[in-house]
Design a protein that fits this description.
This protein is mostly helical and about 350 residues long. It has one domain. Helix content is about 75%, strand content about 0%. It has 12 helices and no strands.
Length: about 350
Amino acid sequence: EYLEIISTYQHKIDSKIIPSDKKIDLEIKYNRYNIFLKLLIFYFTIGFILLFLTFIDLFKPNNKLVNNLLKVFIGIIIIGLVFHTIGLAVRWYVSDHAPWSNSYEATVFIAWVLIIAGLLFIKNRSKFIITAAVLFAGFLLGIAHGNLMSPEMTNLVPVLKSYWLMIHVAIITASYGFLGLGALLGFFVLLLFIIRTPENKERLKDTIKELSYINEMVLTIGLYMLSVGTFLGGVWANESWGRYWSWDPKEVWALISMMIYIFILHMRLVPGLRGKFALNFASMISIATLIMTYFGVNYYLAGMHSYGKGDPVPIPSWLFYFIAFIAVFSIIAYSRYRKIEK
């Protein structure tokens, strides 16, 4: 009875800010179905199946059954993308703002961009691209549903109540999807260097060449989006704070990321840094700058972008093991690369 009185009073005083019954019902269904958590399981399952089929296709090409299965699973991925899109659209409608206003929403959005990026290159013979995209999307959704981020829908802070949220944040977070895909493609190419032998050298040569070219294209798209997003961020900063640039931690690390990816895409002009190994190795490790820009600044540094700041957490111990693994993995890949090339 008291709740009904409160509800009647709220609707009488200011009905404009009270969500409609339709929105409330839709939000309840959104929370009940938890679509992004289900997509996490979906992407990982499909991704590992695709990885298995892709390696079979690599060593036993033109297998009709494998090719048909790959087409079927790619169709299933498109269905998953449709549900992913619906989930983002529902969140947008219910929250009344673009669904990339906090760490959780941005991570889910980057996963969506990854799937689209993978499908853009689906016509290429190698299916490593879509495989990498799906696996990375699943990984990001896993991070989004971990302890670091809250899926709660909240009101926007005043500085984010701007049309620039839809433009600047969308472009710059989408760039993370393409650059992240480039990192995983680099990892796969280094893995192919490791498993390459004199017997399968010629068979893997074309795949490595194709993946390297696609990786360069993906990095180029990502760099363009990162650069445009950063410049537009300066315009938004001028509107909000009266200056284009203030050496804020977020701005500095965005600039560092831009400079590093510019260098990577121009390494082919530098003697000693040319070649497919250098490109793919650099694309793999350079994602560390994006991780610092996206996570490190949000959780460990303070600045004008602190509205997106999360509670600082201890650096996980597994991170050091992962860095050690990447170092050993890269050394092995380089030694195999040099051995086979000779």
